[in-house]
Every structure is written in structure tokens, then in C-alpha cells.
Amino acid sequence: MRKDERPAAPAEAAPAEAAPRAEGSPSAAAVAVPAIELKAVNAFSAGYQVLSELSVAFPERRTSVVMGGTGSGKSALLKAAAGLLQPGSGSVEFRGVDMARFSRKDEAEFRAKSGFVFQDAALWSDTTILGNVSMPLSLHKPWMGRSDAAEAVRLILKRLGYEGGMAMRPADLSSGEQKMASIARAVVHDPDIVFMDDPAVGLDEDATEQLFGLIEELESRGKTMIIVTNASEFAYRFADMLGIIRDGRIVAFGPYEETLARAEREPELRLERLKARGIRAARKRRESL
User: Fold this and answer.
1) How far is residue 269 CA from its own chain's centroid?
2) For burial by CB atoms within 10 Å, which of 144, 154, 217, 240 has the most?
3) Residues 106 and 97 sit within 8 Å (Cβ to Cβ)
4) pTM given for the model
């Protein structure tokens, strides 16, 4: 893992806090078990502080959506949570274990259990789409034969509505097709945790609906998902837990209904688009998990 610059001036943090659940919300017991937890994290990128004393716990087998505008620190939060941006201070834990103490074996196991959707797709330009999407299978499931791996890639690309050839290279694809390949790469190896950075950016309406369908499937299989976005549709459709990040700090985080109710009392949380949609139907799809 990388080591970025250190020091930072402490800033006010707003860690999540358990509270009574509304009907259809995750149980208190489930919310209390974090898959990923950031504790007083300060992080830096290109000499700038991007996270300030940030603390938040993302529960297992739930979908957490963190909303924030451009420059709010949401991408940095996601990368820190995924172990792609090492804190200058504070800690990031995976199921109670500090990632800074990971051995090479621990890190390899974490990578095998997680997938990451980059905002800009981040495909290898000199590799075919088959090669790009199958990379996690080559790394984490080396026992799979080439034909089995190719079939797994074909199926997940088809599920997302990708119609291009698998022998094509990223430069031959539209930005939307590249994003589909990036999403496919993040989930092809069936990870426990999926990190998504503004996953609908670059997708047309049809592709976005395919993505929504995939997220629903992942939820039904008990996957943990952490999504950062400025699109309210993700929060409205999928958030079990809803957070708001601003200036590198979490200013609100909790069950969806509670965060929305708090926004009614605190207009500065700026959830107008969500508030305008009103109360959503209770989410019951995870109650049996």
C-alpha cells in the first residue's frame, strides 16, 4: 500500500451513531457490525488534504451511499476505504483488522474479497476487454481455465448490456462501454464487498437501468456495497445507510430514513432532491439475509 504525506490539522468529525430503526430499515445488530471502518482518518493527495479526521463505519451486507459534490472528498473516502489511498493518520479497518497491519497474504485476500468501480473506468489501454475484465479471475481464481474465465466475462458483460467484442481494446469503445467493462471487472470474481465511485457516470439510460438491476442482484445475494455519488437516484433506490460528505468530512451518516429526517431539520445538509421525492417504500429485500 502507498504512503502519502502525513500531518494534518484535526477537524471536526461526525461518526455514525446507532439509533432506533424505522420499519424496513436494517436491524441494530446488523448496523453494529462494520465491514469497513475509518477512524479519525486524515488523508492527502498531491500535497492537499482530502480527508479530515473522518470517521465512519460501513455495515456488512448493506448498501451504504455517501453523497457529495465535486471536490467534497467522496472519491478519496472510497479509495481510503478500499485500501487504495493510505491515511496520513488514523486507521482503516476491514472486519476489525487495521489494513496498515496487513501482510501480503492479508492484502491479497482482501483484494479477492473486494471489487472497485473507478469513476473513469481505469482500464488497461494495451489489453483487450477480455483481458481487462478477466484480470481478477487470473489473480484470485487461477484454477479457472481460460474457457471458463472467458465465459464468466461474457456473461457479466451481457448482463450489463455490453454488445462490443471482447477482443476490442478500450480505445475502440465509447466511454459508456468502457464503464460497463469497469463494472464487470469489479464483480466478475464474485467479491463480498463492492466499492463504486459514481458508477453511472458515462452510462446512457438503458445501461444505467442494467446497472440498477445488477445492484439489486448483488443486494439479494447479501453483498456489501459502498457507493459514492452526487446522484440522488442511487440513494433513493438503494441506500440502507445514507451519508453526506463535505470538505473531506462526514457531516451525516445513518439509516436512510434518519438521515433524511435530519436533513428536514438541518437544511444545510442539502438533500433537496431526495426530500422532494418523499417517503419511499420500505426496503424489505434484505430482511431474510
Assistant:
1) 21
2) 240
3) yes
4) 0.84
